[in-house]
Amino acid sequence: MPPNNLPFNPGQPQDLQSGLISSENSTTAQAPIKKNLSSTQNSLLISEIRDNMVIMVDGSYRAVIRCESINFDLMSNQEREGVELLYQSFLNSLSHPIQILIRSKRVNIGPYLEKLYKIRAHQDNMLLNVMMDDYITFVDNLAQQFAIMDKAFYVIVPYNNQGDLTSIIQQSRGLFDKIFTKKKVQITKIDKTTYEKAQAEISRRVDGVSAGLRQIGIPCRQLNTLELGELYYNFYNPDTAIDQPLQNYSGLATTYVMKGQQNDSIGGTNG
Predict the structure, then answer these.
(1) What pLDDT digit, counting tens, does each position of 68-91 carry?
(2) Domain boundaries, the chain
(3) What's the sign of the alpha-carbon dihedral 159, 161, 163, 165?
(4) What is the reported pTM?
(5) How far is CA 180 from CA 37, 57, 167, 206, in A?
């Protein structure tokens, strides 16, 4: 079926790619649509998220570990020294690079207030009702006056088949070229053997980093595929993610059309 926004005449040849209708009797034609080669999708360095890993367009891999914070200020001097020594030993034991990320994001207080309203509606005690009303009003006014922030801590574990040092140098040199040039980034093809090797190596590195963090006393866990998708969704949509968080993953679905190759024998397209 032709697009709804294009005039269509079965007796005239139609160019679906440029949005033009060619006709011998036609004297006017629409201006050709220019493709936006420097779109946001072309700037993304992510190729795919699967099996609890992020596959980059250059063929490298990433795993993300979320860490909980510890109250370092309330520790005694002896406990602080112990944590610092364990952290130093943890860094010295690493045989591969890691990235430590601390992210602050604004918290949507709406769901919490809705939960309080539901509890308030089923509360029979008059005194507790009054106290809950005062608390709900206090939280609501606080959220309107100040931005309530939440901090999250992550450790990114990378792996590259060509070597970590070489990968870092290439990424540092080509980062701005990939973002600001109009050339579309090509996705590297990965065979099954290479992928299984990378998956095993990522798992080994994640286990080593997690064991080192737990030895310090930091609770941590690796993000699964859905959590990785939510993390990147929040990064690339910081404003939308507050009001429209990703929750029901099973309901996410979309349709898309791929342009196929020209079939000379039939005279149509396959896609």
Answers:
(1) 988 888 999 999 999 999 999 999
(2) 1-34, 38-105+154-269, 108-147
(3) negative
(4) 0.63
(5) 10, 16, 20, 33
